[in-house]
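Changelog note: in this version the structure field was regenerated for every chain. One regenerated record is shown below for reference.
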Amino acid sequence: MKSIKLVFLVALKQEVPECLMLSNNVACVSLKALFAHDYRVFEDSNISVLTIITGVGKKNSQRASTWVCEHLHPYHVINLGSAGSQRASLTIGQLVIVGSVDAHSYSPLACVDRVPHCVTNSKQLPLVSLGTVEFIGDVSPSDCVDMEAYWQAQLFNLHAIAFSSVKYITDFNDTASLKAISMQWPELRRAFEQFFSPLVQALGASINEPISVIIPTYNRADFIQRSVTSVLDQTVPCECIVVDDGSTDTTLDVLKTFDTNIVVVKNQKNQGVSFARNLGVLNSKSSWIAFLDSDDCWEPTKLEKQLHYYHHHSLFEIIQCDETWIYEGKLKEKKAYHQKKEGWLFDESLARCKISPSGVLMKRSLFDAYGGFNTDFEACEDYDLWCQIARDYPIGFNQDCGLTKYAGHHDQLSALPFLDAYRVQTLARLLAKEENISYQLKLQVFLAYKQRIIDLGRQKRTF
């Protein structure tokens, strides 16, 4: 059951589109069967998406949500179904994304606004509020009337599971249109089929092209041969791009020994790791990119195992592997809070960087969408980018230790003072553009915490 990454909750079988019934990697089961401990749908190890037919009403919605939280804990749950319009501009036949599940609050619950980005046209749908209406006929100031999403959203928010609700307008919440709801089922299924087909088609995808690997380096003659060799020793094809960021030592001489096996991009002057990584991506050919710092190295199967992971969990657009730490030549144990995880990492990423650049494999389109690494940052450029991405995307994680990180040498960026000053800039920028009140509150808490650390550090240096 742990392999299930995405769950669809649908009240009636008549509302389930064909792509969620018959596609590979997708299983469909009734809540009744699950409560009878009929788990045959999980016998196929390729299943990563589960559709549960819950039945209608508050009780079934809550029972289904509780079962999912207790047995699956997926990274995303999507509620599909019908809704009654209470706004003149929302007409029968429209799809809407629920932006709020409380008619008396205009701020969405955390995670409600997260719709899988492989559904390319999701931004075009109206964002509506869904009232707390418990039975037809209630008067509510909400945009829609629904019987399931409100109760489901409350529980998933409590368990920090991302939740979205996509609804098809079948009626106007009046006697006449309610009697004709059954006539809307064929069009409802066709609408959901068109909307979710891109997502379902992405399941089980493979990466069938060499991956572009970007290695930024500056005066790392003592380390660069090890890192480049670890890329060339990968068991899958890859393009190795080394960006020399104005080295003044013998780094370029070392790179010449690799001849045409690598691509070397030269900066005439040192412009920082962010500029170097971004330049490497600009010179890459693949739609998938990976990064490796010039003092780190990979196991030969690092990329192969990430490709295998993606084939089974292809809803992720960014994946990282586990890592081993070597400090001053000795193995260093990691604290529990350093452990890598899978799923929505935004909250944890605010406290400390939860993603290692050298462990990442990601779509180039995702990297480009966020503008790459911030070239204004001397350090913490990875914290800045990963916080932005983790806000909108879940992070995949294959547990193989494919990366070895070396620390303890004098020129590490992590050794620079006042790193939290860069993190404060990131948090302030994220807060300025955040519209969701739940995320605003989280950002405010961490911004105040990081600012307090900086202020205490300055006080100590004053005396």
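Spot check on this record: The two ends are 57 Å apart (CA to CA). The first strand starts at residue 6 and ends at 10.
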